[in-house]
Design brief:
With 114 residues, the protein is mostly helical. It has 4 helices and no strands. The radius of gyration is 26 Å and the shape is elongated. The relative contact order is 0.06.
Length: 114
């Protein structure tokens, strides 16, 4: 199971891991990345609950930092998609070139009737 699939389900599983199916729970038990993500979600939840009971001063510029982080993640995902398309395009181009060269070689080596 890919981490991306489980990453979408982790926020809902912060309080109740029982919502995960067997494959998701097994992956979570083996994957350190997903375990770290779940720990971060739990820390955010604890922090937000603590903030509800005591006043907390929000640092100046926090909104800019958060938005910048969100934009960075979005840009990385877009670059990854473009890189995948580029690799597929180059692979297709290489295959077409090889087929063309093969065709030229077949035609060039074919004997002509005398």
């Amino acid at each position: 199971m890919p981490c991306d699939h489980l990453a979408e389900r982790l926020p809902a599983a912060v309080d109740d891991l029982e919502i995960l199916d067997a494959a998701e729970a097994e992956h979570l038990g083996r994957c350190l990345r997903c375990q770290a993500d779940l720990a971060r979600y739990r820390r955010v939840r604890r922090t937000m609950l603590a903030m509800a009971h005591e006043p907390v001063a929000v640092p100046v510029g926090l909104d800019a930092v958060l938005l910048e982080g969100i934009d960075d993640v979005r840009d990385r995902r877009a670059r990854h998609r473009v890189a995948g398309r580029r690799a597929a395009y180059l692979g297709g181009l290489a295959a077409a070139t090889a087929a063309g060269v093969g065709g030229v070689l077949v035609l060039a080596t074919r004997r002509r009737p005398a």
